[in-house]
Design brief:
TIM Barrel; alpha/beta; 12-stranded mixed beta sheet; 12 strands
Length: about 350
């Protein structure tokens, strides 16, 4: 039976996929220890990245089948020279109601006005520490002042509202930054007000090729929550969407929100609604899955829009109910995080 091109992108467990995450590049101007192997990653050969027109085509085809939220990731997406043009193209697509970007923010300030004009509705900034020496140890680069300045600039540009949320992601690593949870919450609370607020999200460390993951670096989300509550009082649970990746809480006496992304100790696979396309055009239906389908190769071989949708539906038909668990994932070949795009 022929499937309508506008039929929802649903897997065999009834999960409707409406979120598309697109990696614009595997390049990054930082070398975060949980994301990039110490030796770096081989750069993709010239011509292997999706061209702007190809990115726009994939997004347009999937938007026609119900994808209405798109997130641009990297590496560092703003390292790509035409990142703002990509944002402008995707922000203008019919059916797309939110366009987000995850960035380390080192290049953000100079691009903020153009990104606002392009229609960027959601912004997530990575920040794992407030201490300059730790920032350099975790990212293998200097730059904390630039990131903090970019957060201020984002708030000034109108992010941090219900219409244009601002999130800050912190990957928690035992013995490296886990003792800063309360300080980071205090920082976020100090920048939040009735008009502008930051949602600070603590993320459990995840295993990817070359990042040296082990249980000894993993800090379970409830342990981080207990650290925050010891300093700030009992957190107040908020209502999260079924597909949410984060358990969110209000911080008493402040306007800040804290979230916990517990992808290892309390996986949220049951509500997964996300598709990922890497910078070289590989479709991944699970962040941790090794299976990939090259949409780039299909397009360059003459695939029609219907052909592309058929490839996506076929990949979804093989999507599992949940990932295999953190210990199994640590032994499963996968790309480094920087080459996947989150």
């Amino acid at each position: 039976m022929e499937i309508s091109p506008t039929a929802p992108l649903t897997d065999r467990f009834g999960r409707r996929h409406s979120v598309l995450r697109i990696g614009l590049t595997e390049r990054c101007n930082l070398r975060c220890v949980y994301c990039m192997p110490a030796a770096g990653v081989p750069l993709m050969p010239k011509g292997s990245h999706l061209a702007t027109d190809e990115i726009a085509r994939v997004a347009r085809v999937l938007a026609g089948a119900g994808v209405d939220r798109i997130r641009l990731t990297g590496g560092e997406p703003l390292v790509r020279k035409d990142a703002v043009e990509v944002a402008r193209r995707l922000g203008a697509l019919a059916g797309v109601r939110s366009l987000a970007m995850t960035t380390n923010a080192l290049l953000l300030e100079r691009h903020l006005p153009a990104l606002v004009e392009a229609g960027l509705t959601h912004l997530t900034i990575s920040l794992d520490t407030l201490r300059p020496e730790r920032f350099e140890a975790l990212t293998r680069r200097d730059g904390l002042a630039g990131v903090l300045g970019a957060v201020d600039a984002a708030l000034a540009a109108g992010y941090g509202t219900e219409a244009r949320p601002l999130k800050v992601n912190t990957v928690v690593l035992r013995g490296q930054n886990d003792d800063e949870a309360a300080d980071l919450v205090a920082w976020a609370a100090g920048l939040s007000s009735p008009e502008r607020r930051i949602e600070l999200r603590f993320i459990e460390a995840m295993p990817f090729d070359g990042n040296g993951w082990g249980r000894e670096v993993l800090v379970p989300w409830d342990e981080t929550k207990a650290r925050v509550e010891a300093a700030h009082g009992e957190l107040v649970p908020l209502v999260d969407a079924a597909e949410s990746t984060s358990r969110t809480f209000a911080v008493p006496g402040t306007h800040a929100v804290v979230g916990f992304v517990a992808s290892m100790t309390a996986p949220f696979c049951a509500g997964c609604n996300r598709l990922r396309v890497t910078a070289d055009g590989a479709l991944k239906v699970c962040l941790f899955g090794g299976r990939e389908t090259s949409l780039r190769d299909a397009m360059r071989a003459g695939a029609t829009d219907a052909d592309l949708l058929a490839l996506v539906r076929a990949a979804l038909a093989g999507k599992h109910a949940a990932h295999a668990g953190m210990d199994a994932l640590a032994l499963t070949p996968n790309r480094p995080m920087v080459a996947i795009g989150g």
